[in-house]
Amino acid sequence: MRMSHSRSFLLWLAACLLLWIVPSAVAAQDPVRRTELVYGVNAYIGGRYEGDFYPRSVDIIYLVADAVSVVSPRHTEVYYWPITNREVADWARLNEPVEGVLEIRRRGRLVVGLEATDYVVQYPEGQDLSAAVVYLGEEAHRQWDHFDESRREFRERVSAYYNDLVTYRQDLDDRIEAGTLEGEPDPPPMEPEPFLYSSTEVNRGFPVALPAGNYTIQVRTADGEVRPESRRRLKVFEPLSTGVAMWAIPHDRYTFPEKSDDEGEVLYLRRGTIAYLQPHAQEEYRDIHLTRLLDPQDTSGRPDLYQWLQTDEIEDGVLVVTRGQRVVGRIERGSYAVRQITGAALGYEIHDQATTDLERLRERRPDFQGYPVDTRELPASFSVHLEDADGKPVPGSRRRIRVVRSDSEPWLAILPYVPVVLALVFAGSRRRRFVRLPRDQE
Amino acid sequence: MADAIRTDSLTKSFADFEAVIDVSLRVEANEIYGFLGPNGAGKTTTIMMLLGLERPTRGVAYLLDSPSHAREFAVRRRLGVLGERQVFFDDMTAREYLRFFGRLYSVDRIEHRIDALLERVNLTHAADARARDFSRGMQQKLGLVRALLHDPELLILDEPVSALDPRGVVEVRELLHSELGRGKTVLISSHVLTEVEQLADRIGIMNKGRLMVEDTLDNIRQALQPEARIQIELAEPDRFPTAALLDLDFVSRTELRDGRLSVHLMGVASPAARADVSRAISQHGGVIVNMHAEQMTLEQAFVTITDEDVERLAA
Amino acid sequence: MGFDRRLGKGRLRAAWLVCQRDLRGLLFSPGTYLVVLLAGLAAHLFLNTLAQSIADSGLAVLSGAFNLPIYSVLFVTGLFLALASVTSISREREQGTLEVLFYGPIDVAAYIGGKLVSFGLAYLGLLALYLVCYALFAGSTGFAFAVPTWAVIGLSIPVVMHVVALGTFVSTATRRVRASLAWFLLILLVLLALQFSPDLLELAPVGNRFYPPLRLARIVLERINLAFTWVSPFALLIKGTEAVRRADALLYVYTAAISSCSVLVLAAGSMYLMWKGGVRS
After folding, report:
1. Do B112 and A416 contact (CB within 8 A), yes or no?
2. Of A398, A420, C73, C159, which residue is 20 to 30 A from A354 by alpha carbon distance?
3. Nearest to C38 by CA among B85, A370, A26, A419
4. Residues of chain C with pLDDT under 70
5. Which CATH topology does B226-295 take?
6. What pLDDT does residue B199 have?
7. CB pair distance less than 8 Å for C104 and B101
8. What pLDDT does residue C2 have?
């Protein structure tokens, strides 16, 4: 007998379901390890370096154009880790560089053949506070030595500080015990400035700096053979545009800043709010490129969406307030200290270090710097933009600001019902105009 | 005279059957054409092809010399169509519905025309009632008013009186008569054969997708029933010389039974033939008390038509 | 189906009459008012929430206070008009009114054209109604209509017409209302599934995302998705909104143009299908 269409469809569906479910059960087993040729990448992005791991299953490597990134083909053991839903490398078991020349090709032609070199990535002013610098070859060793020496000196300073502090406290205790302490005691020893300088160890890899485009990479060994498993596609992309991200910190909610990415956005402020604006430079990338660069195994990036990547804070310039074409004010950048309010109020107070009465706040390192926009002194609708040291507007820094009333008129709540009421009135009047036929004629 | 409707080898095939096969029909201008056939004979499909609403598989259909596949708006405005089923736009009153079509057909003085036609079919009282609330008969009449609204040159009516009560039939018949008197060409497709018989000049009969017969009603009758009979009641039948009527060349025989004279005619009992018989009886001293012709009605012809008849008629 | 090649006054007149008749139908449809109510309530909810949020936190950053309300209105109204369009022709065909209409001086171009224009005008009318409400709200609260909001409103017109034309096409291609609805919903689901296919694949009940069939499916879907980016109204709306956000005038115009071209292509397709398939059920 012929099977009906619906029955074969059900069987087909069941088979698909099985195919779907069986791997889930298998995935619950111990991870299966396999040795693979993978790529470790130190990818430059927005003034910092991102460490990426490209297993065999990810065949496109993403890099930013015209900046040095370091690519390092290696043999390692790879296994699937279900908790993070990622393939991970067991570097501790196997971490063996692949020797040879890294060939970069475009449309079948060799662009460059790179030799492996030593490198370090350093953040002279701290990882989140300054741009990264990569040093190659001999310079990498020199900079590593410099870092190592700086770190040793810092440790010595810290050690000396603690020794001085112990001595200072001992001396203070002795004087208190002896009753010889008069007036204010000497100030305690100064704590050394924190050590923000950071560096990677000296590693080995292939430094890549290419113009935007699509390439392929492969490793050619000393005997002239290409290792087929080393072949990957390389997507080199550049920022689509640059702009200014504007962070806005409300005066009474320091921990809830809001970010405005572009000039199309409007900052709505409640009347009475002081918003501290912090401009940052930023670069715009295609969502898929940035997402894959930051996490090669993240497949959620979309080609038709875009992302801003914030880089450095813009520290120079003046914030100009305009209404239409007219300049109505200029706001200087200030330094601010934040004090937590204890007790029932719980919250934060922001103090201008230049004018605060609290000496302790005045002298300490500022918590943040920014441009205070005080809605009590400004009209209901205005714009701000940043002007650089030469008096030129910084592109992408203009923002519209609206000061709004938070309480809308209660009568607005009936607005959605107006069309329905109109419809009922309309339908009723039309119905009245209809002639009703005697029942025997319907 | 030019043909108002003409089809050449019109054929419509669907996946599994042929609805219309090789139909070539002609309707002359100012003619009333009865289009007959049982359900499923292919009448409506033929009409739809005439109107350009179905694409023929083969052949061409012309209305007012305009081919159905490239019919200009100007030609469409000269057509009035009453479909098999009466349907109306949601929530429109009869007047709104007619106004819509009046504007579509660019009718002058729409309101006046609507009022006049509604009055003719006795629907004035329902003009501002919702059309979808009408009875079937009222809807049928409203549909007819729509078809006549723009005073079309060619009317195509599919079952125009099927849903009407006797009074409605009379109203519609009168309306049609008055419209027909104004020189319109009409194609009536109907199951109510007496209605067609009263109106049509020529008849086309379809069956199983083919146009079986296309002729005048008299010719069809003659072909199907070679003899007609006139029954005559005379004042003094026994004294009348019945053989004298055989002098008329269309009389085949006479018969006197139970005081009634039966005159058998070759062909149909046309008004002219009846007049000749009447005159001959008077000339031979007969006094006619009552006289009527007995001949096959269209219904009888339609019911009794056979494949042999068709072949004979075709010959 | 006859087709008068001359674009005369007759065709324009017929199209305008069909348009008026359909607008009238929408005006008398309870669905229209339900949609207006839903859209109004959604918009009011968003605006009130926003006002409350600014009252609480002191500030909010938005590309336009009316963006979310506008999106909600676009979604509800667009969906309503799409459903109205998808049922309109098949319903007329099923009822027989289409046949009666085509007895007269009208052709597929006038009919489809009139229908699309009626939906477009209905959308513009509803939009105008919403904008009046928002203007009242803006005047009362101080919220502003930002340039991007206007740009999105502008873009919404071809996008909504794109969905409506798709509905019309499906309605023309099918003979029954049920079939029209089923096909249209299926197409919408497929387009939405394609739009969000990467996210849907992430949700697949497979432990290992590198399971080969899943990888293959992802590659295939990415390719299809890329192609559909230029066909699907949802993808075009997202693309256009991104263009507005990025102030990319070229992409904006391009997106609007693609949507408009899709309307024309779908309208031509509907005309062809009706011409080919006839007007009878």
Report:
1. no
2. A398
3. A419
4. 1-7, 198-199, 201-211
5. Alpha-Beta Plaits (3.30.70)
6. 79
7. yes
8. 46
Task: Locate CATH 3.40.50.300 in chain B.
Answer: 3-220
C147-173 and C249-277 helices, crossing angle to 10°: 20
Query: What is the amino acid identity at position C200?
Result: L
CATH 3.30.70.920, chain B: domain bounds:
226-295
Interface test with A, best of C67, C149, C208 (most A CBs within 10 A): C208
What is the bridge-based pairing of β-strands A306-313 and A109-114? unpaired
Q: In order along chain B (315 residues), what is the average pLDDT of each group of 10 residues?
A: 85 88 90 85 89 89 85 86 87 92 93 92 90 88 92 90 79 79 84 76 86 81 73 82 83 83 80 85 85 72 59 56
| Long-range contacts, B256-261 (Cβ 8 Å, 24+) | B259/B233, B259/B234, B260/B231, B260/B232, B260/B233, B261/B231, B261/B232, B261/B233, B261/B234, B261/B237
The partner residue sitting opposite A57, judged by closest CB among C129, C144, C210, is: C210
A255-297: pLDDT as tens digits: 889 999 988 888 999 888 999 999 999 999 999 999 999 999 8
Encode pLDDT of A110-169 as tens digits.
Answer: 999 999 999 999 998 888 777 899 999 999 999 999 999 999 999 999 999 999 999 999
Band the pLDDT of A252: cuts 50, 70, 90: confident
- Angle B98-B100-B105 from CA coordinates, rounded to 5°: 90
A433 contacts in B (CB within 8 Å)? Answer: 128
Nearest CA of chain A to the CA of B48: how many Å? Answer: 30
- Strands A34-45, A48-54: parallel, antiparallel or unpaired by DSSP? antiparallel
- What pLDDT score does A1 carry? 41
With contact defined as beta carbons under 8 Å apart, do B255 and B230 qualify? Answer: no
Whether A437 sits inside 8 A of B93 (CB atoms) is no
Return the DSSP state at A352.
E
Q: How many CB pairs under 8 A join A and B?
A: 23
Q: What is the pLDDT of residue A9?
A: 66
Q: Which residues of B touch C105 (CB under 8 A)?
A: 73-74, 76-77, 104-105
Query: Which one of A87, A267, A408 has the shortest CB-CB distance to C210?
Result: A87
Backbone angles phi, psi at B33, to 5 degrees: -115, 125
Task: State how far the Cα of B246 lies from the Cα of B265, in Å rounded to an integer.
Answer: 10
pLDDT at A408: 59
| Residues of chain B contacting residue C2, judged by C-beta atoms under 8 Å apart | 52, 68-71, 76
What does the pLDDT read at residue B150? 92
Instruction: Tell me whether A442 touches chain B (CB under 8 Å).
Output: yes
3-state secondary structure chain C: CCCCCCCCHHHHHHHHHHHHHHHHHHHCCHHHHHHHHHHHHHHHHHHHHHHHHHHHHCEEEECCCCHHHHHHHHHHHHHHHHHHHHHHHHHHHHHCHHHHHHCCCCCHHHHHHHHHHHHHHHHHHHHHHHHHHHHHHHHHHCCCCCHHHHHHHHHHHHHHHHHHHHHHHHHHHCCCHHHHHHHHHHHHHHHHHHHCHHHHHHCCCCCCCCCHHHHHHHHHHHHHHHHHCCCCHHHHHHHHHHHHHCCCHHHHHHHHHHHHHHHHHHHHHHHHHHHHHCCCC
pLDDT, greater one: A236 or B231:
A236
CB contact under 8 A, A441 and B134: yes
**Cβ–Cβ of B87/C100 closer than 8 Å?**
yes
CATH number of B3-220: 3.40.50.300
Q: Which of C25, C100, C106 sits opposite B90 (nearest CB)?
A: C25
| pLDDT category of residue A309 using cuts at 50, 70 and 90 | very high
Q: Where are the alpha helices (DSSP H) in A79-120?
A: none
The yes-or-no verdict on residue A304 having pLDDT over 70 is: yes
Measured between its terminal Cα atoms, the distance across chain C in Å is 14
